[in-house]
Amino acid sequence: VKRSSTLNNNKVLGYPISIFFIVVNEFCERFSYYGMRAVLVLYFKYFLRWDNDLATSIYHTFVALCYLTPILGAIIADSWLGKFKTIIYLSIVYAIGQVTMAVSAIHDITDKDRDGTPDNMTFHVAMSMVGLFLIALGTGGIKPCVSAFGGDQFSEHQEKQRRTFFSVFYLCINGGSLLSTIITPILRAQECGIYTQEKCYSLAFGVPAALMVVALVVFIVGSGMYYKAEPQGNIMLDVCKCIGFAISNRVRHRGKQYPKRKHWMDWAEDRYDKLLIAQIKMVLKVLFLYIPLPMFWTLFDQKGSRWTLQATTMDGNFGALVIQPDQMQTVNPILILTLVPIMDSLIYPLIQKCVNFTPLRRMTVGMLMAAIAFVCAGLVQIEIDKTLPTFPSASQSQFVNGMGMALNVSTPGVYVGLIDSSYYSNYSLVNNGKIIFTIWSDTQACNYSREFGFGSSYTFYIPGNLVCQNDITATEDIKPNTAHMALQIPQYFFITAGEVMFSVTGLEFSYSQAPNNMKAVLQAGWLLTVAIGNFIVLIVAEVAKIPEQWAEYILFASLLIVVCVIFSIMAHFYTYINPAEIEAQFMKKGDDNDEDDKKQLQKGMEMVKRNSTGSHSYDGDDDDDERKKTKM
Ligand SMILES: C[C@H](N)C(=O)N1CCC[C@H]1C(=O)O
């Protein structure tokens, strides 16, 4: 059990200085992660030349892997290396992964014929896969350790400061995410190369790689100031063995002649330490509560897929600002940066005055907010559907050549093609805004310009006697999108408000309810809910196959409401504990004899029982040693 005296005494405004290094590390690491992620699908599609399906599947598999590997990192940290060393070693792996990605995106390496396209794609694919694997191992591995390590820097009586730390931590995540998702697409759009200038994916991956190195250096600089809890042996192996023994012992003693025990884990008492059993009970209680939580992430993670696709059917013209569909996602981190301070300093204290707004209640409301966000998305979809024809695909246009000779048509970045005489081109994807086409044959060339609204589609007729601009006639196959992207703001607001209540609170809750030697493991359990949520998106999208998009949104909202009701019932029966206090009861026994052992155990269990009566209220704000014991 951690004692205040073992913690570093360097403090600023009541906060340990060490957390400064931890939050800066998190900012740089999240910049690195989200920055790389922002251009990943485009890299797959345009550099590695994969089709949409393969690019999307590998992308989601990578994201899911990033939230599965925390279990590995947590086990290494809690059982073997400790959080500090685990963060250092896995950050090195992470940085190597990012550098590998940056190198894999240098087309010149294999571009022997210097035409701008890599000649040995297998090399680039293999390097990218190795890079992504190392990144997933690194980012996932350190994630539960960094948050838990941050929590470790606070002593038992600094609960309020620790809660603020988790809010600031979340702000840093989103600050890094916001900046990088703005910056790396700009870097990608630059042209670079030794022989041929191409889109600069190596720079878009290189800058996140550099930020990961900065993250590592910052973390190492803080080294002398951290409180570093020692790992306590191979705890996960002990946990598994203990659970296994409890189950087998229970099965062996099935008959009526054997007296019942209060908890099935108590069947492990014959062989295992009572402290370990009590700790396992704490962890299992929280993990049980996590079962419904992936559903929140199922909805949340559709921002990057369904909602972005929805935005492609909307008008992104905000006057001076023209927003691209994928840029709407930055609304989430922007709102996080605004909402976290407002919630912490205004909304929570106000609600707290009326009701005891416990962490689990906050998370329940967060889930409801996410469901409301999807109802909003459904309503917006109905609005869009009123305006949307189905053929041809939005934003595509074609030319019909009425001249007696073949013509070439192109715009900067798009070659529509060579159109034979009296023939028509394929539909080509054209950006919105003012587009200038160059039309040329062996004998003449001219420019034709036209304003393209978001999502509009045209067929252009080139007459036999082409002079240019005024000769070409256009028919509008699809009207420009009329539903404005601003309509998505309410759904972004609700999902982000939900995220603040659900995710920030859940992060802190996972820390506060974990026994000392399993803090990282429980953080990893929390992150596992994100991974499962991502898998559910893939499964539901495949299985449900609902033709109407608005109906799919409403289905997801309804599912989350059902899950939310289940969660609130489970949460009602959950009792907040103070793991340190329970652990202390067992530690105190020291060299005492068996009789004392029993008394201590009785006391510890009574405390757990007392907690479940909810006699104290969760005031969410005290600095003293008052214990937090309450029902949801
Ligand atoms: C960018 C999101 N707003 C966010 O902060 N997160 C999404 C998954 C968990 C969390 C993160 O740690 O990145």
UniProtKB/TrEMBL annotation:
Pfam families: PTR2. It is a multi-pass membrane protein. Its main location: membrane. Keywords: Cell membrane, Glycoprotein, Membrane, Peptide transport, Protein transport, Symport, Transmembrane, Transmembrane helix, Transport. This is Solute carrier family 15 member 1. It catalyses: L-aspartyl-glycine(out) + 2 H(+)(out) = L-aspartyl-glycine(in) + 2 H(+)(in); glycylglycyl-L-isoleucine(out) + H(+)(out) = glycylglycyl-L-isoleucine(in) + H(+)(in); L-lysyl-glycine(out) + H(+)(out) = L-lysyl-glycine(in) + H(+)(in); N(alpha)-formyl-L-methionyl-L-leucyl-L-phenylalanine(out) + 2 H(+)(out) = N(alpha)-formyl-L-methionyl-L-leucyl-L-phenylalanine(in) + 2 H(+)(in). PANTHER family: OLIGOPEPTIDE TRANSPORTER-RELATED. GO terms for cellular component: apical plasma membrane. The chain crosses the membrane at residues 12-34, 54-75, 87-109, 121-142, 163-183, 203-227, 282-300, 334-351, 363-382, 521-541, 553-577. SUPFAM superfamilies: MFS general substrate transporter (SSF103473). It comes from Sparus aurata (Gilthead sea bream). Belongs to the major facilitator superfamily. Proton-dependent oligopeptide transporter (POT/PTR) (TC 2.A.17) family. Residues 589-632 are annotated as: Disordered. GO terms for molecular function: symporter activity. Electrogenic proton-coupled amino-acid transporter that transports oligopeptides of 2 to 4 amino acids with a preference for dipeptides. Transports neutral and monovalently charged peptides with a proton to peptide stoichiometry of 1:1 or 2:1. Primarily responsible for the absorption of dietary di- and tripeptides from the small intestinal lumen. Mediates transepithelial transport of muramyl and N-formylated bacterial dipeptides contributing to recognition of pathogenic bacteria by the mucosal immune system. Residues 589-600 have a biased composition (Basic and acidic residues). It is found in: Apical cell membrane; Cell membrane; Membrane. GO terms for biological process: oligopeptide transport; protein transport.
